[in-house]
Amino acid sequence: MALLDFEKQGGLVPAIAQDSKTGEVLMLAYMNEEAFKETVRTMRACYYSRSRKTLWRKGEQSGNIQIVKEIRIDCDNDTVLLKVEQVGGAACHLGYRSCFFRRLENGSLINDGVKIFDPEEVYGS
User: What was the pLDDT predicted at 124?
Assistant: First the structure.
């Protein structure tokens, strides 16, 4: 699938997940070509886990899947924007709706997110 330039960044492209209704940025992950094809085929977000070096189907453990409503590609063909319906309320593996639950204020990180679930209950320790 020649829609994306996977070679430019060593086989991976950044993938931004954004709430399709509110525009809220939920998370940033990475896709390899296989993850991108799986996402297009199923219209459910699938990413590549850099730490585990394998495909990661969003929500396969937590149930917090992302149903893809629209796929957009940037002008350089090296970044994906997924507009998604976030099922289960939380995109973040730490239990928050968005991975961007902290803001920088006066040199300190302030947590202003609402926790949806306890990650220890979902993933174990």
Answer: 84
